[in-house]
Amino acid sequence: MVLFVPRASAGNPLARAMCGGLALALLFVIVLPSPVGAVLGGPERVYFPETGHTLAYGFLEFWLRNGDVPIFGYPLSEELSEQGTTVQYFERAVFEWHPEVSPEWRVQLRRLGAEATRGRFDRAFLPTEPADNTACRYFVETQHNLCHGFRWFWERFGGVRIFGYPISEELTEDGLTVQYFERARLEWHPAQRGTAGEIQVTRLGEWAARRIAAERAPLAQPPDVPVFTPALFPRAPGLVRTPPAGAPVGEAKWIEVDLSDQALRAWEHDRLVFWTLVSTGLPQYPTPTGTFRVYVKLRYERMRGGTPGIDYYDLPNVPHTMYFYLGYALHGAYWHNNFGHPMSHGCVNLPLDAAAWLYDWTPVGTAVWIHP
Length: 372
Prior knowledge:
The strands form 7 sheets. A 5-stranded mixed β-sheet has the order 17-16-15-23-18, with no helix packed on it. By secondary structure, it is an alpha+beta fold. It contains 7 helices and 23 strands. The protein has helices at residues 57-65, 68-72, 112-116, 148-156, 159-163, 204-209, 352-361, and strands at residues 38-39, 42-43, 45-48, 53-56, 80-82, 85-89, 94-97, 107-109, 136-139, 144-147, 171-173, 176-180, 185-188, 199-201, 254-258, 263-268, 271-277, 290-293, 296-305, 313-325, 328-332, 348-350, 367-371.
């Protein structure tokens, strides 16, 4: 049996890892479909009394996975057909369904930021040079900078996929510091500094929905459709807003791995700042429970283990690896997309973009709390 030995603990034979990959029989699994009639462990359709509309199927799953109310708001319409495309309006976005493309891109967000600023040529919208500031990121695609809190929010809550590229610099409108993106506008609310409301997504969906006034009328709750509550969706990791009992909330930064939900959440004291579905250890290779600390970070790592002919794996360039106990690590997984289900030899597999964000956010010494 060939075992991987993490470089930081090569002198300790107990630190040999067997958790980098999957059992051989699982190497070719890409996605296990959800049970028929279920979205992330819950119903296929829900009703929102706040606006009198329902949300279902692919749009519901996208809404749950990518930020729900804080990012998109409540639905303002039912699904509609516009020029042959199925769409749905929300307070902060408009969803479009594109069945002709690959599954991960079938739900796309309308370019509301670009629509709302069409024809604007004031200074903030003109191409600019890269800022001489390490807190900023420059985008050659649109020749604009993204800095400080807006950059953190953009990177944390979906980046290009959700907001698009920046199409302006920061500017002041209605007494607020704002910045426009292809699909959104972000606002800074300094009076709410340190809370989840400090940076907010503008309600451009409401602006766009003015053209469909008749379809916005509230509807009665259908008799067979439940009212939305987070408890309906146990496999939607972002719906947890309060740390569980026993959590290390005294830590400035800590990582929670919830084995029951197959979810990872990053917290700053008692404030949730990040979440993602993960894949932890299979029953025969359980992920250890308890409180640990990240003791080494490696941008890339090679992981090998298992029994030849049974479950052997050899995975080069495993990205964003962070060891927290012996040879057990948090790391990106490029060999499967079945997050939300146990898949590993004990490590915590993350989607690649989530692993990259977590790696940058996590200093050595960060607490990792793993619980059933």
